[in-house]
Amino acid sequence: MTPELIERRNRERIATLDPAVQAKFSDFVVNALAAGKPILITDAKRGFFEQELLYKCGRDKNGNVVKKSEIKTNARAGMSWHNFGRAVDCCFVDPTGNPTWEGPWDALGEIGEACGLEWAGRWTGSLREQDHFQDREGATLIDLCSAHVDEINEARAAAAKA
Question: Does the model's pTM come out above 0.90?
């Protein structure tokens, strides 16, 4: 990938986010690049149906983990900051322009935190995700979910049939 393509994809993904958090995520990308750690945002806002499909990976119909290696997320539809445009997942970009998940995650986490983002690399246990950054400032999942109960339930029902 060329630097121009990476920049365009990052801009496009940031544009899907809640306008209240876009500047922080833009600063994160710019500051990472300035520190010599170019990144690619691989995932930003995610729909409820997509979230529920990701949740189903590696689980049986009751949500029990049956294949840990296939788990994609611990969050069901409506329980992820991605659903409300307040989170991104990212990877590093190697010198040849290819995405890689090998890199200085602690340094990147510090850059994200300096931009006011919460870095999931500091979480413990199975929730820990080095590539996940979110902004919860001024919002709670309960408040955000309450405005979308019907959509969330519809997505869960549709995903159960998929």
Answer: yes
